[in-house]
Amino acid sequence: MGNNQPAQIYLPAPSQKGSISLEEAIARRRSIRDFTPEPISQSQLSQILWSAQGITNTWGRYRTVPSAGATYPLEIFVVCGRNGVEGIGEGIYHYNTGDHSLTLHHKGDIRLELAGAALNQEFIYEAPVDIVICAVYSRTLLSYGDRGERYVHIEVGHAGQNIYLQATALGLATVAIGAFNDEQVKKVLRLEQQIKPLYIMPIGNPASNIQGH
Ligand SMILES: Cc1cc2nc3c(=O)[nH]c(=O)nc-3n(C[C@H](O)[C@H](O)[C@H](O)COP(=O)(O)O)c2cc1C
Predict the structure, then answer these.
(1) Residue nearest (by alpha carbon) to ligand 1 atom 19
(2) Could you give phi then psi for residue 203, rounded to 5 degrees?
(3) Tens of pLDDT along 93-133?
(4) Could you give the CA distance from residue 139 to residue 74 in angstroms, rounded to a whole number?
(5) Distance between CA atoms of 127 and 39, rounded to whole angstroms?
(6) Is the pLDDT of residue 37 over 90?
(7) Around 149, how many Cα atoms within 13 Å sit in the side-chain half-sphere?
(8) pLDDT tens across 188-207, in order?
(9) E strands, the chain, where?
(10) Which residue is closest in CA terms to ligand 1's atom 27?
């Protein structure tokens, strides 16, 4: 991508019609760790982010994923590799749920560093894009005290499963990654202290036949 990358990128509106049924998506879902370097489209990224945290009611409060007391602790970052998403430059982006947009957080392709912070799981830099689901625990702990920690962890599972199913419906591959060094991932992503990474989910086209898994 050129140097004219805007600081804010408005994603195409997500679709609510897919080519396979929910039941098929559930049946076909698999963790896939082999990706082609081919970029994904902005519509595909839009759909993945919407499934994870998109707003689904007209006055803008409720989302695709349930949240204890609607406290919404999750924040999503997109690690876009060089030529990772059509028309989007390499960098770390923050997903803004309110207007379904991305804000550039840091320029540059940091996939290799991210893989290094996650036990060198090489599919993190082989995939064109990595979604990192993070949480600001205090939002939920404020209402629920220590039990809020459990609620945040349950919630990230909901978001992760939606990403799995949406990726499956789009013919894309993903895998939920929980094995990483928290502090190193925070450093690589230049995250503020209160934002904690919980899941890394590489996204891309599958290198092998999904049905064969
Ligand atoms: C909490 C959690 C953490 C996981 N962490 C990793 C990981 O670090 N690396 C990895 O390759 N797979 C990881 N996985 C994916 C599992 O290995 C995978 O779900 C399991 O092998 C079952 O395969 P399936 O998802 O295709 O049904 C994780 C899954 C969960 C639920």
Answers:
(1) 31
(2) -130, 135
(3) 999 999 999 999 999 999 999 999 999 999 999 999 999 99
(4) 9
(5) 9
(6) yes
(7) 3
(8) 999 999 999 999 999 999 99
(9) 8-10, 74-80, 91-96, 101-107, 129-135, 173-174, 196-204
(10) 30
Could you tell me the distance, in angstroms and rounded to a whole number, from the CA of residue 188 to the centre of ligand 1?
Answer: 22
pLDDT value of residue 61: 85
Amino acid at 97: T
Q: Give dist(CA 127, CA 130) in Å, integer.
A: 7
List, for residues 42-73, the tens digit of each pLDDT value. Answer: 999 999 999 999 999 978 789 999 999 999 99
Give the residue among 160, 158, 154 at the shortest CA–CA distance from 201. 160
CA of 175 from ligand 1 middle (Å) equals: 6
Q: Is 23 helix (H, G, I), strand (E, B) or coil?
A: helix
Residue with tokens 């409060």: 61
pLDDT higher than 70, residue 4: no
Determine the distance separating the centroid of ligand 1 and the alpha carbon of 57, expressed in angstroms.
31
CA atoms of 131 and 116, how far apart (whole Å): 16
User: Residue 210's pLDDT is what?
Assistant: 52
HSE at residue 87, side-chain half, CA atoms within 13 A, is 13
Whether pTM exceeds 0.85: yes
Residues 6+ apart with CB under 8 A from 99: 10
123-143 as b/e, with b when 16 or more CB fall inside 10 Å?
Answer: bbbbbbbbbbbbbbbebbbee
d(CA 70, CA 189): 26
Atom 1 of ligand 1, nearest CA residue: 178
